[in-house]
Amino acid sequence: MEMQNVLIAFALTLFAGLSTGIGSALAFFTTKTNTKFLSIALGFSAGVMIYVSFTEIFVKSKDALTAALGDAAGLTATTASFFGGILVIAAIDRMIPYFENPHEVHKIEEMTDTRQAVQYKKLYRMGIFTALAIAIHNFPEGLATFTAALEDPTLGIPIALAIAIHNIPEGIAVSIPIFYATGNRVKAFKLSFLSGLAEPVGALLGFLVLLAFFNDIVFGVLFAAVAGIMVFISLDELLPTAEEYGEHHLAVYGLVIGMLVMAVSLLLFI
């Protein structure tokens, strides 16, 4: 395991996680959400993650596990790990109350609409819990980004970018209620920004735990689980949010463009 790859993987994970701060900054320095662009961007992220999960990550996991365990046992372990990853991220999502879930759609306009402000109750608590929910949710995402980049830095770059785009609306979701509750833009930005730190923390802890016994089987199981996590995020979060921000066709166009860009980027590195 080359230290250079470790540093690149950690840097990409840090970038992806701290992009929650971009969402908060957008909420402070612009007055209107470009819903069409955001819809396409979120669809694009889903396309990147779904395509790479099935064509690269799942395949590499299967190759590693079948080489170590044999064809039947290896494919069984790959499939079980894939759905195991889905179960883990779904369980985390279910533990977060709906009204505090970071995937509830918010717009920048809400920060400048005082009529919206009076409708919120216990805003500060909501903002804190949203930040906590994002931190918990981003932990496995950080491990997923880190693992992919550790195996192949060129694979990690588009995944990190996709996760980063996905984190921007989450940053808005944290900053809106905290800003309304406190009137303090700096505090809202800091909490939004810090909630994204869970991704590099997840990557670092995962690396330290797995380093001692990292082998083909551990790699294969983890990689298949990563594929499951990314597919679930795409289907449960990115695409529904893309449709809520924009419209169905824009979300699908973004999805197809994301798949195409990912396919072309993989072809370039053959």
Structure in a nutshell:
By secondary structure, the protein is an all-alpha fold. It has eleven helices and no strands.
Write a structural description.
The longest helix has 35 residues, at 35-69. The protein starts with a helix and ends with a helix. The protein has 11 helices and no strands. It is an all-alpha fold.
Protein topology:
Elements: H1 3-17, H2 20-29, H3 35-69, H4 71-95, H5 114-117, H6 123-151, H7 153-182, H8 185-195, H9 198-211, H10 216-245, H11 248-268
What's the β-strand tally? 0
Distance between the termini: 22 Å
Largest sheet: none
Principal-axes shape call = globular
- What kind of assembly state do the chains in view correspond to? single chain
Low-confidence stretches: 114-121
Q: What is the radius of gyration computed over CA atoms, rounded to a whole number of angstroms?
A: 19 Å
Helix count from the secondary structure assignment: 11
Portion in helices: over 70%
Question: What is the mean predicted local confidence, pLDDT?
Answer: 77
Whole-number count of domains: 1
